[in-house]
Amino acid sequence: MDMHRSHVVVIPSYNTGRILQRTVREALARWQPVWLFIDGSTDEAHRCFLDEPLAWPGLRVFVSEENRGKGATAFLAAEEAARAGYTHMLLMDADGQHPPESIVPFMQASIDTPEAMVLGQPVFGPEAPWVRLAGRQLSVGMVWLETLGGGIGDPLMGFRVYPVEPLRAVAARTRFARRYDFDPEVAVRLFWEGVPPLRLPVPVRYVAPEEGGVSHFHYLRDNLFMIWLHLRLLLAFLPRCLRVAKFSRRCRAR
After folding, report:
1. Strand-by-strand arrangement of the 197-204 sheet
2. What's residue 133's pLDDT?
């Protein structure tokens, strides 16, 4: 098991159900420490970690009674990571979609290129719902425009390694990116801040409900939210377009 004192795995969770134990166990088998952030969950799936902490070496659990959203939780994790001396954090979902076997290669890529954000480029299996795949194309195209083809790829893929200090800077500069808008908005804003993207392929698995899979995605609501997100980003992009174009050319030449 590879470890590095500058990098920590962060798993936000909101009512993930029984699959949470498997996600945490498999993450711990590949990297330590792992930080689990319970974001207002009411399903008690995290109770075993609190009741038997000695059974989960390498795990630290943070519990919020309030549901703040993925983005707000990730920003909180960045603050905690900075206080603890970590320079990078790998963010992964708790619902079993992200493969724990990708943790080590992503961490190694980040250790080798610490200035970059290491972004997962999803490889979907046949079980992936077509409606989800079609809907995400809006964000793919819009982010290409907002970064002038700078190399972010799929902006909705949440399996990523972030440099902590630039992530904290983004949190201080926007009041958005606190919920479902976190993944695309943070990737774009980090790019605008001069953080180059490094993409690695990562398989994505949609876990069936009978296997414990849980989804909080709402097609109409969340896609309308994405439209509003990209309208905001386009307006913010306009005064930056020349600087973004210059950085985009540098990234494409890497």
Report:
1. 59-64, 34-39, 7-13, 88-91, 160-163, 117-124, 197-204
2. 64
Give the model's confidence band at 136: pLDDT under 50 very low, under 70 low, under 90 confident, else very high: confident
Segments forming the whole domain that contains residue 92: 7-252
Per-residue pLDDT tens digits for 180-220: 889 999 999 999 999 999 999 999 876 655 554 455 555 55
Residue 1 covered by a domain = no
How many domains does the chain contain in total?
A: 1
Asked whether residue 110 is assigned to any structural domain, the reply reads yes
Q: How many residues does the chain have?
A: 254
**Is residue 151 within 8 Å of 83, Cβ to Cβ?**
no
Distances (CA, A) of 114 to 6, 32, 79, 166: 10, 19, 18, 12
The model's pLDDT over 56-79, given as tens digits with 9 standing for 90+, comes to 999 999 999 999 999 999 999 999
Write down the pLDDT at residue 1: 40
**CA–CA separation, 90 vs 11, rounded Å?**
8
Q: What CATH number is given to the structural domain containing 139?
A: 3.90.550.10
pTM of the model: 0.91
β-pairing, 160-163 with 117-124? antiparallel
52 located within any domain: yes
Q: Is residue 2 part of a domain?
A: no
20, 56, 169, 207 from 17: Cα distances, Å? 6, 18, 33, 12
